[in-house]
Amino acid sequence: MAVSQKHVALVSGSTSGIGLGIARKFASFGYDIIITGLGEQNVIDDIQKEFKQNYKGDCTYVYADFTKQDEIQAMCETIVKKYPNGIDILVNNAGFQFVDLIEDYPIDKWNDIIAVHLTSAFLLTRFFLPFMKKKGWGRIVNHGSPMGIVSTPTKVPYTVAKAGLIGLTKGTAVETAAYGITCNIVCPAMVETELVVKQINTLAKEQNKTYEEKRNDLINWLLPTKKPVTVEQIAVFVSYLCSDDASSMTGSVVSMDGGFTAL
Predict the structure, then answer these.
(1) Mean residue pLDDT across the chain
(2) Per residue in 64-99, pLDDT tens?
(3) What pLDDT digit, counting tens, does each position of 119-158 carry?
(4) Catalytic residues
(5) What pLDDT score was predicted for residue 5?
(6) Which region holds residue 240: left if phi is over 0, alpha if psi is between -120 and 50, else beta?
(7) 256 forms bridges with which residues in the sheet?
(8) Which residues lie below 8 Å from residue 97, measured CB to CB, with a gap of 6+?
(9) Contact 156, 162 (CB under 8 A)
């Protein structure tokens, strides 16, 4: 994989899990990294200390509540104060999960799901595209889900948000294809992040099972490969999409789901 010149990469939702893994992969190339997300200050301080010790590029943390458009705008303006030429790579990874039946789903949770997964990606893309166009180079990768392609009960709002993100990806790819910019979406399934571990633990308690029992139930149901997708696998593939080798790959919906959507 050809790694280009030093870039500035913004990875949303990167204080833990998949986003942090992607940020680390970019940092290993010497890129300057901007991380966002929730977390205690000591956790964020430790991440920045780790990046400073282990990587050559800079690591900046900028906070924004991704349910609030004005805070996203302020975050973008803060980034441009440090990087007047904007960013080169945008990974829209921020997200959370809330499950319930349609008739019981709280309206505020619906609004938050759409805001964090879909609207924030649109706003960040909208803000930074002019900088990418001016440079004639840019990479946007959105974090999708198999639930944007198929769905299961209690996940309708999540499915709506992820399906919308697929549409945003395709539309962005078409609009920017002539400017040296690519936009793709990666749809991983069952990555054992802290969030997924918490969900499995909750299900295990509800069903009077151990964590391992419930984990194995889900793997056997969801994944023909019988093994979860790893953060490292996703980070490696995202870094490929952001390389010059992938310059002709745009508008793609890539299922990284152990065969789930092939069932």
Answers:
(1) 95
(2) 999 999 999 999 999 999 999 999 999 999 999 999
(3) 999 999 999 999 999 999 999 999 999 999 999 999 999 9
(4) 158
(5) 65
(6) alpha
(7) 188
(8) 158, 195, 199
(9) no
CA-based torsion, 172, 173, 179, 182: positive or negative: positive
* Residue 187 three-state SS: strand
pLDDT at site 2: 45
Quote the tokens at residue 67: 């349910």
* pLDDT tens sequence across 12-29: 999 999 999 999 999 999
Per the DSSP assignment, residues forming a β-bridge with 191 are 229
DSSP annotation of 229:
B
Residues linked to residue 143 through DSSP beta bridges, in sequence order: 186
> Which runs of E-coded beta strand occur in the chain?
8-11, 32-35, 59-61, 89-92, 138-143, 181-188, 253-256
Q: What share of the chain is helix, strand, coil (3-state, %, to 5)?
A: 55, 15, 35
* Range in 4-13, 145-154, 175-184 with the lowest mean pLDDT: 4-13
Q: How far apart are CA 133 and CA 122, in angstroms?
A: 16
Phi first, then psi, for residue 138 (nearest 5°) are: -175, 155
**13: helix, strand or coil:** coil
Residue 218 near residue 195 (C-beta atoms within 8 A): no
* Cα distance between residue 201 and residue 183, in whole Å: 35
